[in-house]
């Protein structure tokens, strides 16, 4: 039995292709293995705090006993990391905003990329501690960032790959939707759904 962490970060609560496709991905997965379980988090309707001085002091001064304020500052981070560690499969809806990720998703990453919990430094370099996960990142954008002239402006895909790899998540697959016109949107929606059908079946072969 696999556990899924389903996360949405779109600022749109209606009319969002990334939300629609993450939902369809999870629904398709559960049709195949209905015994699997899901934790859902909406980063837009339940925004996360940004890290601050108390958070940084608690994480980077481990030799000093943390103050009550520092311990409190890590409460959200601890919860999010526990959710991440408990999951076998990650389904992240992350639209492209201004060539990168939404601020809500950046706030999430800042909370879960944490020395001693999800990564550590060794004599041979950094080591990710979040291992054995499958990550599916569903993106949505007006332009096609897989092709020029926008491909060279894409700071979204390489950034997500970098941070996930840094904490040990190396099995990362992107499902993309794009299009300005209704015709292009529907055409690419059909293509994304076909990818979902294929990837959910393939993913379940390696999820447990």
From TrEMBL:
Keywords for the protein's UniProt record, in alphabetical order: Flavoprotein, FMN, NAD, Oxidoreductase
Biological source species: Deinococcus cellulosilyticus (strain DSM 18568 / NBRC 106333 / KACC 11606 / 5516J-15)
Molecular-function GO terms, alphabetical: electron transfer activity; FMN binding; oxidoreductase activity, acting on NAD(P)H as acceptor; oxidoreductase activity, acting on NAD(P)H, quinone or similar compound as acceptor
Assigned protein family: Belongs to the azoreductase type 1 family.
Name listed for the protein in its UniProt record: FMN dependent NADH:quinone oxidoreductase
Domain of life, per lineage: Bacteria
Cofactor(s), by name: FMN
Gene: azoR
Listed InterPro entries: Flavodoxin_fold, Flavoprotein-like_sf, FMN-dep_NADH:Q_OxRdtase_AzoR1, NADH:quinone_OxRdtase_FMN_depd
Cofactor note: Binds 1 FMN per subunit.
